[in-house]
Amino acid sequence: MSAASRPSLVRRALLAAGLVCTVGLAQAQSGVTRILVGFPPGGGTDAIARILGERLQHELGSTVLVENKPGAGGQLAAQALKASAADGHTLFLSHDHSITILPMVTKNPGFDPAKDFVPVAGFATFVNAFAVSNGTPAQSFKAYVDSVKAAGGKSTVGIPAPASVPQFLVQVIGKQNGLDLVAAPYRGSAPMMGDMLGNQIPAGVASIPDFIENHKAGKLRVVAVMGSQRQAAMPEVPTFSELGLKGFEDVPYYGLFAPAGTPKAALDRISQAVQKALAQADVRDKLTAMGLTVGFMSGEQLGAREQAYGKVWAKIIQDSGFQPQ
Question: b or e along 76-110 (b: 16 or more beta carbons within 10 Å of the residue's beta carbon)?
Fold first, then answer.
């Protein structure tokens, strides 16, 4: 089977979920729950939303639709959540970037997570990773660094969104290794992956769920991961800590958020549905296969996780000299 005809993990997730991504239908039907996603179809976050959404549809006993609102690293989706009715029928499935990082790097993001949103439930943590394309001969992170130095010390690294954790990671990698690495921002991981697979860009930083399938298929190589320990999904890949790059041990999260003012009964109902969904072996297996560490967090626990993560990255961003834009 050719690479073009081989169904991807993301595509299988989309087909398995059978969820519709249209605004009009979501608004027209009563009792429909929308899950907003701030990135395009085909990326890791989108696939995760569809896997979880399929099971929530069963647990909630009503239609669940995934609605993609890509742009500005999830900022548009976050603004859409703020503008939505606080009735328990609109959720935002997000990782750390849109909820924690964006408000710290953007002067006017159009939302304040502490005032405009309420954490509903967390369901996983994950790590970001550094990968090289097949057009890059390096078989390890050290070999990549050496190859860039040999070529003059300058190279480009793709990132899914500007002013994101991957951008700051690229900056630190460059500084600690004496390289001039330029972060090239994309509108999500899917277009970045397309350029990496086409050898249009030599390296990229994104989440494990974005890279894992193509890494296992040998279409690119993940050469380093964040976190305090190696990942079960790719135990052969060393952590940045092992490679001497400290400060990136704290791992980001995935969670569901609702508009502030959503009734507690509605929040509890959704949180319980998430907990039940994660108890299903097929859901856990699908998410784990994508490189996630699956684990339920209540709304309160997710909120505490968000605040702790924010403190770590506030210092990293401040130390980098980055000015909100």
Answer: bbbbbbbebebebbbbbbbbbbbbbbbbbbbeebb
